[in-house]
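User: Can you fold this complex?
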Amino acid sequence: MTKLLKKVINKIRMLPNADQDAMATLILEKFLDKQQWDTAFIHSQEKRGQPAEKACGDNHPEILDISEHADWNATVENAERISNHIKKLIESSRVQEARKIVSAIRPGVSAKLDYWKKVLTEPVAKVGEPGTGGDMRKDILWFEKNADNYKGKWVALKNGVLLGSHKSRAELRHNLKQSGKLARSLFIRVEN
Amino acid sequence: MESEIALLDTGAEWSVIGGETAILLEEQLGSPIESSRMSTRLGLIDGFLHHVNITLLAGQNSGDNLTVESTVFVSEEWEGPLVLGYRGFLEKIRFALDPGVVPGEQIFYFGLAE
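Assistant: Here's the predicted assembly.
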């Protein structure tokens, strides 16, 4: 333990018990935030109230490997903080770490955590009906020959034939639907 | 139902749907609880992650369609093409690309990973 930390703890010792617990909670929150949840783990409800010096000791009894606990006790109180951390991981392209965290959280703790659990689910592929796609080769050839004339617009093609074009995808879709030409059409937006 | 061309980008963190398509989709899916931010070649964009089904259409007599329960990033700010990215989509299918020799010969192969 450093001299500075000893000094802080000695000052905290002088406070009333309730204030000591409040300081311990604050220190724990800062410590766990610093760990950035890579191997951090919020202490379970059974372990709350322990003195900060014990919780932050060398063996880190409060820091547990998430993967070892299938039934992680995320609570309403810490759900917002966990959700924010997950969001930061996702925005930092650390999706696998975020997935590991949410996999250990039981459903129903909070709407935000349930949302993260849903969108972080690994994709599932299923074989469908026999191919219903058209032959795009003619469409691609048309596009490469004529795209320059439709810059900034959406074009709809089918078997190499232009069905329509419009600046608005919604408008083009509406027009084709009205004329019965929407089915199996291919929409492409021509970049400016 | 119509189909749309997408840009295959194994380097994209998520699949991305932008512009008018994003507006249409968000109306159907509603606004999720949390927003996200994504770094793209066009800069940082704000949007939402949605859990949607994406179907890859095989050509007739060329195999079967493949539907993937995916996670995509939907953002009106994205002005580029529809992107098929790695997380939430490509990571759990098998795919290969034959760039072809002449225009119109490109072939994208896809199938189940397991």
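Residues 36-72 of chain A have pLDDT under 50 and may be disordered. The two ends of chain A are 63 Å apart (CA to CA).
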